[in-house]
Amino acid sequence: MANVPLYGVKTHAQKVCSLYKRALRNLEAYYDRRNVYRYQAVLLRDRFDKNAKITDMRKAVELLKEGEDELFKTQHPIPKLFPTSQGGVAHQRVVTPPDWVIDYWHPLEKAHFPEYFKRREQRKKEFIAMWEKEYGTADKKEEKH
Amino acid sequence: MNNMKYSICFISFFFLFMMMMVNFFFMIYFIMNDMVILMEWEIMSFNSLSIVMSILLDWMSLLFMMFVFLISSVVIYYSKSYMQSELNLSRFIILVLLFVFSMMLLIISPNIISILLGWDGLGLVSYCLVIYYQNLKSYNAGMLTALSNRVGDVFILIVISWMLNYGSWNYIFYLEFMNNDWEMMMIGSMIIMAAMTKSAQIPFSSWLPAAMAAPTPVSALVHSSTLVTAGVYLLIRFNMMLLDMFFLKLLLLLSGLTMFMAGISANYEFDLKKIIALSTLSQLGLMMSILSMGLPDLAFFHLLTHAMFKALLFMCAGIIIHMMNDIQDIRFMGGISLYIPLTSLCMNISNMALCGIPFLAGFYSKDLILELVSFSNLNLMIFFLYYLSTGLTMFYSFRLMMYLMVNDFNLLSIFNLYDEDYIMLKSMFVLLFMSIISGSFLSWMIFSYPYMIYLPFNLKMMVIYVSLVGGMLGYFISNMKIYSVNKFLMTYNLSNFLCLMWFMPNLSTYGLSYYFLNLGQSLLKNIDMGWSEIYSGFGMMQVMKKYSVFYNVYQMNNFMIYLFSFIIWMFILFMMLMFNN
Amino acid sequence: MGQMMGSYDARKVDLYMDDKPTFDPQAGFNYQRKPREMVAREEDLVSAKIPVKYRDYCAHHLLEYQSCRYKNMPLLYKCAHEKHAYLICEKDDYVIRMKEFERERRLRLREKRIVGVA
């Protein structure tokens, strides 16, 4: 799954699994009590399982397209999202500053944490050494444009 | 700042609470003696123009100020615990205080310039508060809020310029006497439009559910009691002038429709704060419509009692959201009344007050409104809108109660459910006490001249019939069993229409701005970054570079250039001599 | 639509909400009818600054209610008796006005019948 050469190319099995997961989430939006949802989810799984063993690719692709259409036509206008997921209420509320911001601190502020910054400089040197071991040293020509 | 003995929250809570007590005593004194104080500072006056800065203190302003101080003090104390993980809490509290002071300026001003100061201040500060969590949803919501409020500001600016025609900006003096002028009618219609934008009536109602992206204390203060009631308050002040106008009938229709639409949409909504926002919208429609029937003191009464229990409802919702780690979707919640009894007590009482259960706060205002509506002569459709909306209020309140409290627990673990946050609880208990007492207290205080209502038995009981039917429907719709088919799926197209507020937010956001934004983008890409780069930006620089290289040749003191130009000049002279004959 | 359906009977005889009675007040009664008179005095009403639209035949109860309010402020629930008396008087006044309207309507109908026969 991770060694996809091109971005966006999916196998048929991946597409079916994605459709199944999205359909389950859609069902969760309609049937919010857990026991009721479980019953409806089993029914949905049965619908998927009935067509699971088809080897004729034309029919399988057509069924997949019909499934996508049905999901689109019955999607819930207010899907049940977790708050920090994309489209949820608390998405991107808390921002973690990137790591390189610490390098821009004033030296007086850096003096509050002497050991950390010593270790940080050591870590930077080790990182550069690791990079150069794997990819070779940087070209002198590329330093200035 | 880190080693202060009392936090800024406690100091502002104390200050606002003391102001509230002072206002309470003054209000009682003013009602008792039927006193009005108008203080004026003259800025400029010549011929027949007089520009003054004035402050009007009558019982209505003092009462409203008392309520606003109470709610804001309680909300600031509440946000001490709600926003404790916030690094810049001082910034938040200062924004809320700025909001409260703008509202005060709006309440005590009898002239339209200081109303504009307060009005614009409210709009601006509410924008800053809505975008407080700076994510994409908040930015969109803030833009929607600010632009809708801005439309109202434009109307008030037009009113200001038009009112100068009458010689001063103190509208208080013109209300009864200038009723029949055409200009006054136009001014009145502008004021109605401005109030409609602020109080989110039908053409401008998309910002109120969207503004729930703000933090919950902001919603409790701003979107339940103060910002959205500024429009209603403005119309209450102007009511003498508006009484026989056509636009008032239009307002009656639009606000009745708002009431109805918000009630229906709240039934399909699953976000806790959006349900409460739509409930606020419905009650605002009720206030506006009773105002447009010529009963301003009833609108004022409902405004005050509604502020109490709506702020309480938002604060309870805030505690629930806090406990569920920011989840606002009621499909994740259930059965919490077993674990947080005090919060669910406050939630229950405020919901019952909202529905108009007898003898709580909402009953006095809502029941009186509905009885007076039945007593007057009305269109059948408006009558149905009122009663159906009351039934719908009961419907969505019952549904909310079922989802939150009665059904089984739906989230993963009950570890977070924690009812001992005494700061938030103490602030809620103040509002709880007021939400029970204030209905009865105000109904004695405000109505010096009581309303007589003489109705047949069934018409008087209509409220109760409609509420019972609504309650039963609310129970049935949230009772989900294994064998039940989801009613949303069965009526998919209709439910989509009713759920998304009749697609009006789409009309007033995409519909209005899609063409102009597209136009803006094509202007940017084609003209700003395209042709005008060639003709005046980058292209001009290239031209100048090329030709300055060319012209450099002349400045290099090349002898051949001089000889060549000498020959050319001789040639020209020769041609001129030749052709002059 | 409610006021269209409910006022059909009155509009049929050309009678509208604000019309005054046009027939003789004594016609059809076997006892002597007295015109209604104000109990509260004009100067009392003026000095209490009661708005003009509340100076009707029940204003004496209103004056009592206002003075009770002033005495008992802020414990206004103690004025319940005076408020109830005022509202009862207003209700009686409403019923009297309703009956006058109905009487006017029936007399006009009767006149139409009589003129139609003649």
From TrEMBL, chain A:
Organism: Spodoptera frugiperda (Fall armyworm)
Entries under InterPro entries matching the protein: Complex1_LYR_dom, Complex1_LYR_NDUFB9_LYRM3, NDUFB9
Pfam families: Complex1_LYR (PF05347)
Biological role: Accessory subunit of the mitochondrial membrane respiratory chain NADH dehydrogenase (Complex I), that is believed to be not involved in catalysis. Complex I functions in the transfer of electrons from NADH to the respiratory chain. The immediate electron acceptor for the enzyme is believed to be ubiquinone.
Localization in the cell: Mitochondrion inner membrane
Membrane topology: Peripheral membrane protein
UniProt keyword Zinc, yes or no: no
Domain Complex 1 LYR protein: start-end pairs: 14-71
Family to which this protein belongs: Belongs to the complex I LYR family.
Gene this chain is encoded by: LOC118277210
GO biological process: mitochondrial electron transport, NADH to ubiquinone
The name this protein goes by in its record: NADH dehydrogenase [ubiquinone] 1 beta subcomplex subunit 9
From TrEMBL, chain B:
E.C. designation(s): 7.1.1.2
Entry GO terms, CC: mitochondrial inner membrane
Catalytic reaction annotation: a ubiquinone + NADH + 5 H(+)(in) = a ubiquinol + NAD(+) + 4 H(+)(out)
InterPro entries assigned to the protein according to its UniProt record, in alphabetical order: NADH_DH_su5_C (IPR010934), ND/Mrp_TM (IPR001750), NU5C-like (IPR003945)
Keyword Magnesium annotated: no
Domain NADH:quinone oxidoreductase/Mrp antiporter transmembrane: 109-384
Enzyme class: translocase
Domain NADH dehydrogenase subunit 5 C-terminal, first and last residues per copy: 396-576
Major location (coarse): mitochondrion
A Pfam family: Proton_antipo_M
Membrane topology: Multi-pass membrane protein
GO biological process, one term: ATP synthesis coupled electron transport
Keywords: Electron transport, Membrane, Mitochondrion, Mitochondrion inner membrane, NAD, Respiratory chain, Translocase, Transmembrane, Transmembrane helix, Transport, Ubiquinone
Places the protein is found: Mitochondrion inner membrane
Membrane spanning residue stretches: 7-31, 51-77, 89-108, 114-133, 154-174, 220-240, 246-268, 307-324, 336-364, 384-406, 427-447, 453-477, 497-517, 559-579
GO function term, MF aspect, one: NADH dehydrogenase activity
Its job: Core subunit of the mitochondrial membrane respiratory chain NADH dehydrogenase (Complex I) that is believed to belong to the minimal assembly required for catalysis. Complex I functions in the transfer of electrons from NADH to the respiratory chain. The immediate electron acceptor for the enzyme is believed to be ubiquinone.
Name of the protein this chain belongs to: NADH-ubiquinone oxidoreductase chain 5
Organism taxonomic ancestry: Eukaryota, Metazoa, Ecdysozoa, Arthropoda, Hexapoda
UniProtKB/TrEMBL annotation, chain C:
Compartments reported by the entry: Mitochondrion inner membrane; Mitochondrion intermembrane space
Keyword entries, A-Z: Disulfide bond, Electron transport, Membrane, Mitochondrion, Mitochondrion inner membrane, Respiratory chain, Transport
One annotated Gene Ontology cellular component of this protein: mitochondrial inner membrane
Residues of the signal peptide: none
Record InterPro entries: NDUB7
Membrane topology (UniProt): Peripheral membrane protein
Function as written in the Swiss-Prot or TrEMBL entry: Accessory subunit of the mitochondrial membrane respiratory chain NADH dehydrogenase (Complex I), that is believed not to be involved in catalysis. Complex I functions in the transfer of electrons from NADH to the respiratory chain. The immediate electron acceptor for the enzyme is believed to be ubiquinone.
Family that this chain belongs to: Belongs to the complex I NDUFB7 subunit family.
Family annotation (PANTHER family): NADH DEHYDROGENASE [UBIQUINONE] 1 BETA SUBCOMPLEX SUBUNIT 7, NADH:UBIQUINONE OXIDOREDUCTASE B18-LIKE SUBUNIT
Protein name in the entry: NADH dehydrogenase [ubiquinone] 1 beta subcomplex subunit 7
Gene from which this protein is expressed: LOC126911932
